[in-house]
Write a structure and sequence with these properties.
The protein is α+β, with helices and mostly antiparallel strands. It folds into 4 domains: about 35-85; about 90-105 and about 405-490, Beta Barrel (conserved putative lor/sdh protein from methanococcus maripaludis s2 fold), CATH 2.40.420.20; about 110-120 and about 305-400, Elongation Factor Tu (Ef-tu), domain 3, CATH 2.40.30.170; about 130-300, no CATH class. Helix content is about 35%, strand content about 35%. The protein is built from 9 helices and 27 strands. It has helices spanning about 1-30, 30-85, 90-95, 165-190, 205-230, 235-245, 260-265, 315-325, 465-480; strands at about 85-90, 100-105, 105-120, 125-130, 135-140, 150, 155-160, 195, 200, 250-255, 280-285, 290, 295-300, 305-310, 330-335, 340-355, 360-370, 370-380, 380-385, 395-410, 415, 420-425, 430-435, 440, 445-450, 460-465, 490. The strands form 7 sheets. Strands 3-14-17-16-15-20 form a 6-stranded antiparallel beta barrel. Strand 8 and strand 9 (about 200) form a beta hairpin. Helix 4 packs antiparallel against helix 5 (about 205-230). It is rod-shaped. The termini are far apart.
Length: about 500
């Protein structure tokens, strides 16, 4: 075992000795092998350097080529983007979309506040109630719901059943008969007057003639009282006069359309022509029905003037009161703020002295002139239609501020596409989409900033811009082969 260990040690010692001898020999012979080895390393370094330079030159030329292509691509994209914002419309397309053009100009914008409102009848003016003038039975109804009527036209026929009214008529007829007898006696006595020395002399019954004359005056006074009594009982003045002429008791009463001003006590008798029809809005009785004096027969609507009742928020109250005091005209959109009917130059006629305790709203009224939009006859009856009707919703626009030198456009002239706003400018048969900044917009108009984007005098699209925008979007989708998004008119 010991011999084996000694043998291994000897081997390792021998290997070490050989390595030492080789190292010493290389050191001593360095003058011959070191220059050759340096020459080999130098050649290898030169080859590597040449290869790297060629690679760098290739990369540099390739980079320059790519930069040129990128610059040319950016210019092409800019030109392409400009072309994408332009679209051409034919004459037929213009007519199909109802194209309307206008010039860019500066104007003054009247900033307003929108107040929600509703159309109502004017109390004491728009709704007229017709009541039974006497107690009796309705024997005939001449009208139907919705029929248009003029003052003086017949409404109902009522057969009177009041004993008091019959008795009053009988008394009047009795006094008329007595008056006839008195007149006859006075005539007989007056024929007996003779002339003596130029003076009238009654040869007999002078006192009797004087008594008959006093009796006539008394009867005339009673007849006047009876006539007024019958009118107060509900008989029309025309029928009372007919009773006096014919000496026949009135058994039926004809109820006719009254004049609105007569009902309000502003006219006596028939009055003057009304100038517009009334509409039967409610029929309350039927034939054969027994009615009492003062009972409602029907309601007539006088809608040539209505009232807009608006309720303002507390922060809007100062502007409303200022408009009322200074008689500043207001405008209103009836039945919808988008497609409703715009009415301008209206006046605030009343501002409530109270504020609603629950809503804290201030109520005010605007006078609204109405207009007939239909007037025709069906089976002999007249029917009309007013443009505005009680119950319609509305918005009242009260001016509160003026902005001068602004580009004010109609709502349809500006298209909203996400956060962007576009106006279309005409260039011959082409239209260019130009992005603008909107300073303010309400339900009907848009205020565009005068920042040079739109030039004064340029021709722009006022109506039909949304359809043009859709066509331009479709063109872009066709060029790119796809896309998404949503655009709508402002």
């Amino acid at each position: 075992m010991a011999a084996l260990k000694v043998s291994r040690w000897m081997k390792w010692a021998l290997v070490g000795m050989v390595l030492i001898l080789l190292g010493l020999g290389a050191w001593w012979g360095r003058a011959w092998w070191f220059p050759a080895l340096a020459q080999v390393f130098k050649a290898q370094s030169t080859a590597n350097s040449t290869k790297q330079d060629a690679h760098d030159e290739y990369d540099h030329s390739d980079h320059q080529e790519k930069d040129g292509q990128e610059h040319e691509g950016e210019k092409g994209l800019a030109d392409h983007a400009e072309e994408e914002n332009i679209i051409e419309l034919s004459e037929k397309a213009r007519r199909n979309i109802g194209l309307k053009l206008g010039k860019v100009k500066l104007s003054t914008y009247q900033r307003t506040v929108a107040i929600p409102a509703v159309l109502v009848e004017r109390p004491g003016y728009s709704s007229l109630e017709v009541v039974a003038p006497i107690t009796g039975i309705v024997t005939r109804v001449h009208v139907i719901d919705g029929q248009a009527l003029e003052p003086g036209e017949p409404l109902f026929q009522i057969r009177l059943t009041s004993e008091e009214l019959v008795s009053a008529q009988a008394n009047l007829l009795a006094r008329l008969e007595q008056l006839d007898v008195v007149n006859q006696e006075i005539d007989r006595l007056e024929r007996a007057i003779v002339q003596v020395d130029g003076e009238k002399v009654v040869p007999f019954a002078g006192k009797t003639l004087l008594a008959q004359q006093y009796e006539k005056k008394k009867l005339l006074a009673w007849i006047r009282a009876d006539r007024q009594r019958l009118i107060l009982h509900g008989l029309p003045p025309q029928q009372v006069e007919r009773l006096i002429q014919t000496r026949q008791l009135v058994s039926t009463v004809e109820v006719r359309v009254p004049h609105p001003r007569e009902l309000r006590g502003e006219l006596d008798g028939e009055g003057t022509a009304l100038g517009h029809p009334l509409v039967l809005t409610r029929l309350s009785v039927r034939p054969g029905q027994h009615v009492q004096t003062g009972q409602q027969l029907c309601i007539l609507g006088d809608h040539h003037l209505l009232s807009i009742e608006a309720k303002a928020f507390p922060q809007d109250a100062p502007g409303i009161i200022r408009a009322f005091e200074n008689q500043i005209p207001v405008s209103a959109v009836i039945d919808g703020s988008t497609n409703g009917h715009l009415v301008e130059k209206l006046q605030i006629i009343h501002v409530s002295p109270h504020v609603d305790m629950e809503t804290r709203a201030l109520t005010f009224h605007v006078l609204l002139p109405n207009e007939l939009i239909s007037d025709r006859r069906v089976q002999g009856r007249r029917f009309v239609a007013w443009r505005f009707r009680p119950g319609q919703r509305a918005e009242v626009y009260v001016p509160v501020e003026q902005w001068k030198d602004r580009i004010v456009l109609p709502k349809d002239a500006v298209v909203v596409d996400g956060p962007k706003r576009f106006v279309y400018v005409e260039h011959g048969s082409h239209f260019e989409a130009r992005e603008v900044h909107v300073e303010y917009a309400d339900q009907r108009t848009v205020v565009v900033a005068n920042d040079g984007t739109l030039k004064l005098g340029e021709t722009i699209v006022l109506s039909g811009a949304y359809q043009i925008h859709l066509a331009l979007r479709q063109k872009k989708l066709g060029d790119s082969g796809g896309g998404h998004g949503h655009a709508h008119a402002h």
